[in-house]
Amino acid sequence: MRGVRLFCSTLLILLFAGTAHAEKLPGTIIFSPEVMAQTKQRILERDPLLKPAYDTLIKEADRAVTAPAESVILKPSPPPGEKQHAYWSLDPEWWPDPKRSGGLPYVHRPGENNPEALSEKYDRQRLHRMATDALTLSLAWYLTGNEQYAGKGTALIWSWCCDSVTRTEPHMRFAHARPGIAKGHHSGIIETRDMIRVAEAARILEPSQSWSDVVTRKVSAWFTSYVKWLMTSKFGSLESNENNAHGTWYDAQVAVFALYAGDTTLARSVIGTVDRRRIGFQIEKNGAMPAALKERASRQATFFNLEAFFILAAVGERLGLDLWNWDDPYSGSIKKAFDYAAPYISPDEPWPFGHTGKFDPQPFTPLFHRAALVYKDKRYLNHLKALPDAFLIKDRAQLFH
Predict the structure, then answer these.
(1) 3-state secondary structure of 112
(2) What pTM was computed for the model?
(3) Nearest by Cα to 203 from 142, 264, 285, 249
(4) Phi and psi for 271 in degrees, rounded to 5?
């Protein structure tokens, strides 16, 4: 029966919430530490409901162990006139002008992604691969205790953030370049949302034998420097003032990175303004997010913005600030926004709110598990039953959310 295994798996977590594993809970920022501990216990007990998802995670971790470390110095050349250690990416909606020799300056083609942006000429894919593998390896280490996973995860983070030969400079001055027009654009800051995975992986790996206090200090120093740049640069200021997903993800990054680096005052300051500054401005009383609905891929944009709001609410949990249940009679709430979009997680379900565009539900399934946990409402898991069983039984969102 469609979705039965998914529902039973998460229902067990809901039923046994509060029954913490005897082992110390992981110091996660985003994932529920209680869910992680319960998942580990169930894996040790060989729970058949989790086996497909667990096997998939281990397969991905085994691949990541053998993958090469990523570094910005691996690109063929640096940004024009700049250092190889600078992160460089292409604004994906900008294309060579076919009417001009050499294609310069590039022209804007809204809604059309230039495949050049994902080429090895730029660092976007390197960052994404590094962050994805680091988190996968950390989770595999947590469940198995295999230090090979921890060692490789630590090496990936060290290479990107710490090693003087391979490290990335903590700024995004050359992200979302527009050749012939601008060396970079503040919108490129959204690409370091992948570093949220790195911060989470670092927290998970801290108790491992492969990690050390030296690594913690070095990684924390990198995040501290990057947060400083986000808070003081012109690009950071411009991105912060966006009243759409760019602004939400900016806040999510500052809050997570500050909390990881130990600046709870800054993290609390960011979370303390999300209610009026982000929720109040972006979410209407019925749960709609007009800025997202104006996008060409409005379904993807809606869930993408919700993902950032869920991260902010998770950080709020760590700080004792409740964004999950914040509401206002004159605006919407995170819950209303999620209720508005949740019935349409399946690409087969018609999206009645604007241009659907390309939509991939896979990154957003953890939101449904977390909503079921936070709001104690199995209705959210029922929405996932519209997705293929073959995907659901292997979905790692059952293990961590």
Answers:
(1) coil
(2) 0.94
(3) 142
(4) -60, -35
Q: Which tokens go with 55?
A: 């096997």
Q: Is 354 within 8 Å of 391 (Cβ atoms)?
A: no
The answer as to whether 163 is a domain residue is yes
Q: Which domain holds residue 218?
A: 65-232
Q: Each residue of 101-148: pLDDT tens digit?
A: 999 999 999 999 999 999 999 999 999 999 999 999 999 999 999 999
Q: How many helices (H) and strands (E) does the chain have?
A: 17, 2
| Closest C-alpha among 103, 104, 75, 95 to residue 87 | 75
CA distance linking residue 295 with residue 308, whole number of Å? 17
Q: Which two tokens stand for residue 85?
A: 């250690």
- Condensed to tens digits (0 to 9), the pLDDT of residues 49-104 reads 999 999 999 999 999 999 999 999 999 999 999 999 999 999 999 999 999 999 99
Taking only the tens place, the pLDDT of each residue in 266-310 is: 999 999 999 999 999 999 999 999 999 999 999 999 999 999 999
C-alpha radius of gyration, the chain, whole number: 21
In the numeric block, which tokens belong to residue 43?
């894996």
Residue 214 is part of a domain; what is its CATH number?
1.50.10.100
Distance CA(187)–CA(176), nearest Å, equals 7
Structurally, the chain folds into a number of domains equal to: 1
Q: How many residues does the chain have?
A: 401
